[in-house]
Amino acid sequence: MLNETVAGLLNTQVNKEFYSAYLYLDFANFYEDEGLKGFANWYRVQAQEERDHAMLMIQYLQNNDCKVVLESIDKPNIELNQKMDPLKQGYAHEQYVTSLIHNIYAAAYEVKDFRTMQFLDWFVKEQGEEETNASDLIKKMELFGDDAKSLYMLDSELGGRVYAAPSLVL
Ligand code: FEO
To answer: In Å, what is the CA distance from 147 to each residue of 3, 84, 138, 140?
Structure first.
């Protein structure tokens, strides 16, 4: 069994990861409506990754004989008007998720829960990559978003993203 606080935080994080998937699906739907199918694809793949994160946490909790309690997932609390809006909100959201992962890590560190710290190492690295991706997308949109041809090429590039199962195996 895991420490009660650590297990509770991980259980809460399951909900946060499913919310992330929901949020990114909302972004994908926004871009579909805008006719930017490549951006929509990028966020659909991101939503799949977020679901994977939740599933990995569920599996980790169950591997450690902890009960998983699923709570309702909030409606995405955002307003999307401009093409840049999802990109900026996505970046801010990833920074928030990083802070949550770090909080769980700190709680595990506090009780010398080395197993959970090792499990979370993958997520710490993943958050770094996701923040970089989100920030890079903003920079690209700032550079090319106002030019129709460049936006078309950027959309084509993002349309090439394919889903890959997570590299973390439990
Ligand atoms: Fe699962 Fe992007 O945090």
So the answer is: 53, 14, 15, 11
For residue range 43-84, list pLDDT tens digits in order: 999 999 999 999 999 999 999 999 999 999 999 989 999 999
Locus of tokens 């769980």: 104
Q: Please, what are the domains in the chain? A: 4-158 (1.20.1260.10)
Element spanning 29, H or E: helix 4-34
In this prediction the pTM is: 0.96
C-alpha closest to that of 20 among 117, 130, 145, 116: 130
Distance 81 CA to ligand 1 centre (A): 23
Q: If you take atom 1 of ligand 1, which residue's CA is the nearest one?
A: 50
Q: For 111-156, give the DSSP string.
A: TT-HHHHHHHHHHHHHHHHHHHHHHHHHHHHHHHTTSHHHHHHHHH
Q: Hey, what amino acid is at 79? A: E
Pocket of ligand 1 (CB under 6 A): 17, 20, 50, 53, 94, 97, 130
CA quadruple 27, 32, 34, 38: dihedral sign = positive
